[in-house]
Amino acid sequence: MPLALKTYATIAEAGSALKQSDARYLGGGTLVVRATNEGDVSFSTFVRSNDPELSAITVEGGRAMIGASVTMAAIASHSGLKAIAKAARAVGGPAIRNMATVGGNLFAATPYGDFAVALLALGATVHTTEGELGIDEFLAARDGKVVSAVSFAVPTTEKFRFAKVSRIKPKGVSVLSIAALVDVEAGKVKDARIALGCMADRPIRARAAEKALVGATLTEEGVAPAVAAIGEGTRPLTDAVASSWYRGEVLPVHFRRLLLE
User: Fold this and answer.
1) Is residue 163 part of a domain?
2) pTM for this one?
């Protein structure tokens, strides 16, 4: 089946075009083009926008605004985003990172979407053609949204932690990924946001572990309750990469390491 490509000057125009049932947005194309090559015939039109704002990164006043078309490679090399560079570098190899976009990663199905896990831990705001949504709300029902940008408070390298577990390093598909924003004051955890990838059909918060971590010290004994609670509420999937059982078994091991690193 022949495919059409339509380019629009603004994301709003592209969003209107996407209301056709047989259209898909084309950003970096790392997932949607592969689906086409593998025989997906559910759409006949690619829609994209060349609005320069979609490829812009702005870091000022302690906040970052990243356009939906910004690539993982651009984030990994940006001097103002060093704290989250590790999460961007976790997405595939160099060729994929040069194409994969922030917007596309938000829609990636498990076991993909490692950068979306980082954004969930950061409490990002997702900017769409229909308005702004907190990332928790966006990920709960992400279908049908056209993303223009994400924004978040830029963390320090001491507060933000990220780990990806894969069988093939450095660019393998995730067994699981963990992102944590941990605020320590006077030696104890004041607040924490913990996000997990591959432990459900989309990135999820580890709320029981977050609660257990508040007031704790980042020591072996102090983090033990949070480590014990990290699997609560998870629904890991079985796929070609790993079984549900295996993901559940290794999650507390890597979460403990992340907290004590």
Assistant:
1) no
2) 0.93
